[in-house]
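As the next step, I selected for study a record pairing a protein sequence with its backbone structure tokens, which the following lines show:
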Amino acid sequence: MYREDGFVVLESDRPEQFMTAEELQQKLKELLLSQEIDLPRELEKFDSIDEQAQHLRDNYFELDVGVGKYLQWYVVRLEK
């Protein structure tokens, strides 16, 4: 039996997407670098964008990206 973790990603302006952990982390890094978003206070303790994005990916499932917009992600396990 094979298992591969991935994420289902939901965004306000896009259809549902399947992403690997690395792809989701990259997406979160780009959001952290490019937008004025309200970050959870917990992220202030991290020195780098990489650490912030990884913590978001591993410990949250949603990020406030503005009025009327959303970004949510959920872990999925594929079995074959």
The two ends are 6 Å apart (CA to CA). The helical segments are 21-34, 49-59. The longest helix spans residues 21-34.
